[in-house]
Amino acid sequence: MSILKNFTSLEDVSDPVALVDQVIKCKSELQNREFAKGLSFVMLFFNPSLRTRLSSQRAAQLIGMDSMVLDVGSGWPLEFELGQVMDLDKSEHIKEAAQVISQYADIIGIRSFPSLKDRNLDYSEPVLNAFLEYAGKPIVNLESGTGHPLQGLADMTTIREFRKTEKPRILLTWAPHPRALPQSVPNSFAEWTLSQGYELTIAHPEGYELNPQFTEGANVVYNPEKAYEGIDFVYAKNWSSYADYGKISNSDPRWMVDQQKMLITNQAYFMHCLPVRRNVIVRDEVIDSKQSLVIKQANNRTFAALAVLKNIISHMNT
Amino acid sequence: MSILKNFTSLEDVSDPVALVDQVIKCKSELQNREFAKGLSFVMLFFNPSLRTRLSSQRAAQLIGMDSMVLDVGSGWPLEFELGQVMDLDKSEHIKEAAQVISQYADIIGIRSFPSLKDRNLDYSEPVLNAFLEYAGKPIVNLESGTGHPLQGLADMTTIREFRKTEKPRILLTWAPHPRALPQSVPNSFAEWTLSQGYELTIAHPEGYELNPQFTEGANVVYNPEKAYEGIDFVYAKNWSSYADYGKISNSDPRWMVDQQKMLITNQAYFMHCLPVRRNVIVRDEVIDSKQSLVIKQANNRTFAALAVLKNIISHMNT
Amino acid sequence: MSILKNFTSLEDVSDPVALVDQVIKCKSELQNREFAKGLSFVMLFFNPSLRTRLSSQRAAQLIGMDSMVLDVGSGWPLEFELGQVMDLDKSEHIKEAAQVISQYADIIGIRSFPSLKDRNLDYSEPVLNAFLEYAGKPIVNLESGTGHPLQGLADMTTIREFRKTEKPRILLTWAPHPRALPQSVPNSFAEWTLSQGYELTIAHPEGYELNPQFTEGANVVYNPEKAYEGIDFVYAKNWSSYADYGKISNSDPRWMVDQQKMLITNQAYFMHCLPVRRNVIVRDEVIDSKQSLVIKQANNRTFAALAVLKNIISHMNT
Fold it and tell me: Which of C68, C87, C88 has the CB atom closest to B57's CB atom?
């Protein structure tokens, strides 16, 4: 059994395989609306959210947990440095902010996207870590600068449900996109896939190497086609460069997932976290095929959040 | 008994008179908070809402249904065409969007205003119809490009409560407004009134004819005063032109509802869906009179939504 | 026992000491989730809110009351004058707005900040008073142009919990701030402190006198240091000028609360309503000390709202 105190990254999870077991179990159980009665889940969105917000709020509802959603956006300019004279644009210090939210929450969910400008800042996870330091309540990552573990857990659940062998071969392939996107989803997908003991290949153009802390043990290739041979699951995702931080250096459509490449695989399933740009990331023929798991991934988001909330609540006063 | 699978327009309603009966019944019953326990009502607002949002959410609460409200506004640029290369501003295809929302909802409510620029587009109801096609869950129209059936049902309930005869004479009168407004409310009021077997006169300046699909059977007049003779209910509303689509060609204050015109009626009640611009649409002397039903209409919005939700839920797994 | 019909200002409270008793009692009781079952709390935010919103919604949840939160911001331009021809920017009259919200609410909470431009307008409390006149439902002030009574009640609860004598000596000290802030919090703190029979000193630069209706009985001093002698509680807050309405005429850092001044006191506690600008209003050394009560004040916000809601509900049909 995996015991969660927080769920901010894979590092909070002692047994990632057992946690997927728990998600699968949640799907088949009738949930008890009294389980979390009287407890409060406050979700803070520093950036917009659709899937994560609905699936997490739904998970809370299924166990009778009260939820409060706060879109703080850019309207809550927080100071993170200690010792500052706050006479400019920052109106509240994270030290008070985190402690105050804690007064109204039993669990705090936080979405905070990266700047994609300052790599050291983004990868230091200032918002998550400040809440971990000051809030004194369990923290759930609703997608941060470096990771999206609820997506990772939902994806591992989907793979578990559709894998044909104990050790499927997974391909995470970069694909083009007109805007610079965070590395959060590919970082989490890579480390969660490796945590399950699966075989992972990551394919991307040169210059798009992910932070090695998330990919150790993966096979990296720079060819958009060869990587598909013998693959059981193709996970497509765009991300901006980690090395030349936040930049786009490639828009080659040969990296798009199409039927021709899928034919090279071992009748692979297609996965994407959504939203997806059709005929840029993936051709209609693939996402509309029977092998596409994208909606099942979205469905599993609720149960990933449910398992995380139930796990945290079970160990809250222990 | 009227059986609802969806509630996107009057066409979804097999027996519109019986549905008004159900609303009246809902008003007198003590609601059972266990009725919809565990079910989820997701409301998507592509445009702002006050009355519809509060009344629909309240209806869900009264039967113990979980609700989630999402203001998607302009921040969710959706692609509706199939086969597009989505490399510009559209970040998600409606096909995924609708299926994803369905994973977190048992019933989906949608507000989506018309552009008032492209009549064919607006009257094809792209958002509602895409959700009907892809979502696989019951859809409730929270006001769309061509109709506002929850308002229509609430209005019919109000007329039922105050009518003195089985076949009251109803006047829907256009009134001036400084901005171009949709035809949704007058379209729905016209077709719902006709569906109840009532006698309907529609008065408006020339060029403001509504789409005939909603008004067949109504008497159309172009005079702002004569139409009031013998009328039992005066329903005022502005709309922009259907023929010269979305345009304003008239601002004649003689179309405003005032006491002098009301004196011509059969002691008629005054109705409006709100919000209303006082002394532009209607004079204070009328809206502040005892004959004004506007607040009762607003009150009936909750029970219209309640009857619709209960009806849909009752037939969800049949 | 203090009986509340509304909670818009201290004037609504017959026994302010007894109301603090009720808050203290709420903190120690297990709340009954059936207490307010079926009732609806609609919160209207004409301005942003974090603490007030979360604490009030949490209070409603604790007694099983349904809540609906509406951020109306600037998107709901209301007309307040009677008899106007509404052909410009105002799309709804407060008379309809208030009555309509009432159809969906059993209690209405309203946040409406002052303009800080027109003193007579702000101090006439147009939004609160229009809702009191037209809504016909109990109104709770979630911070208005002239007061923030939920903050005042939470502050009195905090003082009650930490006072060492029956009649502690309280200092409300002005402190600098780069932006013009309302007088709502200091007005309420002053009148609530006096209502408890405590000894109140108000320190501020000349020209920052508060409206005397809130400060009668307080000792006013214009020196940033002398006022600290013998004080038990130091409450820091910035406000803009009441005399030269909404203006800032002083930014002297000698008014900041620091350790040196705190040493003059009777081992005083430090209080602030938050958010607070560190090293502008108060030095880190004070807000980070054991004498700082700011987080406890934030915690008491929930119980102040809880006591108010319970009190109003208890007397709703009497």
Answer: C68
CB-based contact B315:B7 (threshold 8 Å): no
Residue-number span of the structural domain to which B175 is assigned: 151-297
Look at residue C143 and tell me if it is in a domain: yes
Q: What angle do CA B31, C104, B187 make, to 5 degrees?
A: 95
- For residues B174 and B211, membership in a common domain is answered with yes
The pair of structure tokens assigned to A303 is 């149960």
Residue type, A98: A
pLDDT digits (tens, 9 = 90+) for B230-267: 999 999 999 999 999 999 999 999 999 999 999 999 99
Q: How far does C37 lie from chain A, in Å, by closest CA?
A: 14
A72 touches chain C (CB under 8 A): yes
CA–CA min distance C38, chain B (Å):
7
Do C132 and C164 have their domain in common?
Answer: no
Q: Does B90 touch chain A (CB under 8 A)?
A: yes
Does B299 contact chain C (CB < 8 Å)?
yes
Q: How many residue pairs bridge chain B and chain C with CB atoms within 8 Å of each other?
A: 71
Task: Clarify whether residues C94 and C214 are in a common domain.
Answer: no
The answer to whether residues B221 and B310 belong to one domain is no
Q: Would you tell me the crossing angle of helices A149-162 and A294-314 to the nearest 10 degrees?
A: 120
Are residues A134 and A166 located together in one domain of the fold? no
Q: A275: cis peptide before it, omega within 30°?
A: yes
Q: Which of C86, C91, C103 sits opposite B279 (nearest CB)?
A: C86
List the Cα angle C307/C310/C314 in 5-degree steps.
135
pTM listed for this prediction: 0.97
Interface residue C70 vs chain A (CB under 8 A) = no
Is A4 among the domain residues? Answer: no
Q: What is the pLDDT along chain C (318 residues), one digit of tens a residue?
A: 678 999 999 999 999 999 999 999 999 999 999 999 999 999 999 999 999 999 999 999 999 999 999 988 877 899 999 999 999 999 999 999 999 999 999 999 999 999 999 999 999 999 999 999 999 999 999 999 999 999 999 999 999 999 999 999 999 999 999 999 999 999 999 999 999 999 999 999 999 999 999 999 999 999 999 999 999 999 999 999 999 999 999 999 999 999 999 999 999 999 999 999 999 999 999 999 999 999 999 999 999 999 999 999 999 876
Is residue A239, in this structure, part of any structural domain at all?
yes
CB pair distance less than 8 Å for C50 and A72 = yes
Specify whether A163 is located in the same domain as A293. Answer: yes
The total number of structural domains that make up chain B: 2
Residues C85 and C222 in one domain: no
* CATH assignment of the domain containing B308: 3.40.50.1370
**CB A211, CB A183: distance < 8 Å:** yes
Same-domain pairing of C163 and C263: yes
Closest partner residue to A87 (CB to CB) among C61, C280, C301 is C280
C86 vs B301: CB contact, 8 Å cut-off?
no
Q: Which residue of A has its CA nearest to B75?
A: A48
Residue C33 with chain A: CB contacts under 8 Å: 37-38
CB nearest B87 (choices: A33, A54, A178): A178
| Chain C contact set for B178 (CB, 8 A) | 87-88
Which among B58, B62, B274 is the nearest to C96, CB-wise?
Answer: B274
Phi, psi of B208 (to 5 degrees): -105, 20
Among all chains, which residue has been given the structure tokens 């600037």? Answer: C74
For chain A, the chains sharing at least 3 beta-carbon pairs closer than 8 angstroms are: B, C
> Would you call A189 helix, strand, or coil by DSSP?
helix
Interface contact C282, partner A, CB < 8 A: no
Residue B58 lies in a domain: yes
**B295–chain C nearest CA distance, Å:** 6
Whole-angstrom Cα distance, residue A18 to residue A1? 6
Write down the H helix ranges in chain B: 16-28, 51-62, 94-104, 119-123, 126-134, 149-162, 184-195, 212-215, 259-262, 284-287, 294-314
